[in-house]
Amino acid sequence: MPVDSVSAEGPPPTVRRASALPPGLAATAVFLASAAVLVLEVVGLRLVGPYLGVTLQTSSAVIGIALAAIAYGAWTGGWLADRVDPRRLLAPAFLLAAAATAVTLPVVRWAGELLRGSASAGILLLTALAVFVPAALLSAITPLVVKLQLRDVGRTGRVVGKLSSIGTLGGITATLGTGFILVAALPTSVILIGLATLLGVTGMGLYAYLRRVDRSVVVLGQRGQAAAVVAVIGLAGGSLTTVAPNPCDVETAYHCARVVVDPSRPGGRLLLLNSARHSYVDLDNPRHLEFAYAKWIGAFLDESAPAAHPLRALHLGGGGFTLPRYLEATRPGSFSRVLELDGGLVALDRTKLGVVSGPTLDIVVGDARTELVRQPSSNYDVVIGDAFGHLVVPWHLTTREFVADIRRVLRPGGSYALNVIDYPPASFVRAEIATVMAVFPHVALVAPPRALAGQSGANFVILASDTPLSLDVLRSRLGSLAEPVTVLAGAELASFVGDASLLTDDYAPVDQLLTHP
Known about the structure:
2 domains
């Protein structure tokens, strides 16, 4: 009779199960880890924005990389939880995530200088440097905690469901808290160092607690030597932030902003938003227009009414307030209302560019789309569109519905001037012109000849009115500029637009239409 192998070899060794964490501690660990991942995701866009711009591509990359980190971290954490006592991994996961978070800012700032303005590969690489490692480490924590809490197979669904919901609540809390409070109140560097400190303190607290309740748990090596190494790395990472290149004078809720003095003009100031040349003003001579597109709009304003006749203007986007200054200087008594989304940028304009509100300048902080709805009908002589998210006009400021509301606020005979940027084959500007033509009967385009020929990217200025535009006078004014410029209208403009689609609130793929350099 064969001998039973189990009887011969004896019973299988008893596997010592790790003790569960107290429910409150387990919930706190999952909540904090999940919240920290979402803080990193929200802040990640602000980290890469100064180098790559805030576009649909960068937003998609941040979300995609964060999700990849969550997936990889959760899978790895579950795999490790089945092979190692989870109590030996919890504190290291928090400490390593703290160190990775602390070094993120200097790493991104140095790498960002090398990858500035990159296309897809550079966007993905810099985003991965900003988010992936700490997010993956944090995402491994939840499966470790779940494994510790699974003491009874009959309660598996309850345990997993409870901890999953707590993690989701942590993510929601972090998303809302970061977007509505932290980003508005604190610089990115402070948010990241604060988060790294919180994670580090949590890791050391877990280490102390687990060692106290079970001396057999060895965390991060004998006598915590590895924990000390991780802490030193984290502190070193935080200190590197002070010497890493900083592209911002001011970090607002929407922009990394810097004002640069022009050495060739004593009063010249260049405003950089997310490292892009956004506005130029001469504090001593508001009539001076540096950028070509500003000169084109300035020439249009000059011929839009009799000389010295005051105008009522609505500006969509403030930037450096170049054109409101120009309008006041060339047509005293004119009134400008500026709709600017970024209150932090307005504060910078006040302190460094001398912007002062008053009877001739009203500044409204808010989204141009929502604030336009509140403007009275037939109230303005001209509307100037110069709002950008990096190099892209925000999609909701490009649609037929939005343009129709612009026509509503214009007085009879009023005009709309819109600045956009595009690159060959100029798909976006063609679609935007088609959209404006669907609302206004008289439309023209001002652009460099090379850009119209598809040989280079450039600024394009679209002009529109419900009455005929004085294009001959405008061409005469523009002909005196040093840079060659063409004005298209009528059949020539229709030929340039071709069969471009209209942009509507239901369909406005602006980022996809705009070809990036």
